[in-house]
Amino acid sequence: MRRSLATGALVAVVLLGASGCAPAGSGLCATPASSPTVENPEARPIAFTSDRAGSFDLWLMAADGSDPVRLTRDDEAEGLPTWSPSGAQLAFMAAADLESKGDICVINADGTGLRNLTSTADRYETTPVWSPDGERIAYGVWEDTSNKIFTMTSDGQDKRLLTDNGNWPSWSPDGERIVYSTPRGSDTGQDLWVMNRDGSDRKLLAEDSTEMTEPSWSPDGLTIAFVMSRTREDIYVMPAEGGPHRRLTTLPGHDHWPPSWSPDGTQIAFTADGVDRVGEIAVVDLDTLATTNLTNHAANDAFPAWRR
Q1: How many CB atoms lie within 10 A of CB 55?
Q2: Are 102 and 126 in contact (CB under 8 A)?
Q3: Which long-range contacts (CB under 8 A, 24 or more apart) does 60-64 make?
Q4: Domain map of the chain by residue range?
Q5: What CA–CA distance (Å, rounded) separates 12 from 295?
């Protein structure tokens, strides 16, 4: 039976945290001396995570899934890439291994300039996302049994707490607001909230009897894609100001981690996994609801990020 990412250790370390783990720290995000540069990264607008080379590395591929190339080459577990607005860099989460705490790192699109922005040994830092002006990065932190959202400058300075109850941040295209998901305390569900970029004026955007999470703002600012879990996880969309939501995916298993919009806003990339299938990158067309696999590999492929 193929291993599903839905229960994989990488997701446990990315989202949940664990006790008694090895520390992160400055040893992460160290470029191997033999790491080659990637030629013509502009032709590969989708970043993703894959263990097809033995460890969870970052990869790039063309919009149709062709021409995949490995971006990072080490024994660390790397995931959740996000493009800078210029498309010149990627921020991502790195962990020493599948049982360790994570840091936020950045790398140039050609594979050079790898560096650690957080270097903390006592916190799980994950789900980074760049502000539209490229000046700040919002990210999630698992600390003291709670999910928190921070921002920092793009060089890792000036870290600021926005909320002590939230995860999966996503910036509005104008950079003024952040949508995120919030756990319901002792309940197992999550709801969607919005706040100003400085953490002020937090408001409930949408709630459901189950779980709404992993929101992602559309390029035109009018729509928010998100994941809702009922009998399984699927991709939905709704108006950015709240309102009725529409289901986009109906594949067996889970469709999630998180929705990533194409630059023109007509498609959403996501991870499809479960039901005896390994993780694959797929896209769904918002008009036709047609779903197409971009990867079909024996390894785990996950966490797509579309350069805008």
Answers
A1: 16
A2: yes
A3: 60/109, 61/294, 61/295, 63/262, 63/306, 64/294
A4: 5-30+38-306
A5: 23
CA distance 236 to 299: 26
From CA 170, how far away is CA 201, in angstroms rounded? 16
pLDDT tens by residue, 211-264: 999 999 999 999 999 999 988 999 999 999 999 999 999 998 999 999 999 999
* 3-class SS of residue 12: helix
What dotted CATH number matches 5-30+38-306?
A: 2.120.10.30
With tokens 């709240």, the residue in question is: 242
Give the DSSP H or E segment for 11. Answer: helix 9-11
CA distances from 73 to 64, 88, 113, 236, 261 (A): 24, 19, 13, 34, 27
Q: What is the pLDDT of residues 197-210, one digit of tens each?
A: 999 999 999 998 88
CA atoms of 250 and 126, how far apart (whole Å): 28
